Amino acid sequence: MSKGTPSKGLRNKHSHIVCRRCGRNSYHARHKICSACGFGRSARLRSYAWTNRKPLRA
């Protein structure tokens, strides 16, 4: 009769697995794209300017 919270413990599927290019647990098994390095989408390494830390202004 009780559904909801007890049923949440039955979920043990993993959407992300270990990427074979960067080694991080960011490769989406269904979409076949790594969210960390971009493997599967492009030959280039995924990088954005907003990920780099900007130096503090004095």
Task: Describe this protein with a few key phrases.
about 60 residues; little secondary structure; N-terminal domain of TfIIb; three-stranded antiparallel beta sheet; 3 strands; about 10% strand; flat; ribosomal protein
Q: What this model shows, in words?
A:
This protein has 58 residues and is mostly loops. A hairpin with a 4-residue loop joins strand 2 (27-28) and strand 3. The protein has a domain at 14-47: N-terminal domain of TfIIb (Single Sheet), CATH 2.20.25. The mean pLDDT is 87. The protein has a three-stranded antiparallel beta sheet with strand order 1-2-3, with no helix packed on it. 7% of the residues are buried. The chain starts with a helix and ends in a 24-residue tail after the last strand. It has one helix and three strands, in the order H-E-E-E. Helix content is 7%, strand content 10%. Its cofactor is Zn(2+). Zn(2+) binds at residues 19, 22, 34, 37. Keywords: Metal-binding, Ribonucleoprotein, Ribosomal protein, RNA-binding, rRNA-binding, Zinc, Zinc-finger. Binds to the 23S rRNA.
Global shape: flat
- Overall strand count: 3
The level-1 CATH class of the domain at 14-47:
Mainly Beta
Structural class: little secondary structure
Sequence of strands across the biggest β-sheet: 1-2-3
What series of H and E elements makes up the topology?
HEEE
**What about the largest sheet?**
3 strands, antiparallel
Oligomer: single chain
Strand residue content: 5-15%
Q: Rg to the nearest angstrom?
A: 18 Å
**What's the CATH topology name of the domain at 14-47?**
N-terminal domain of TfIIb
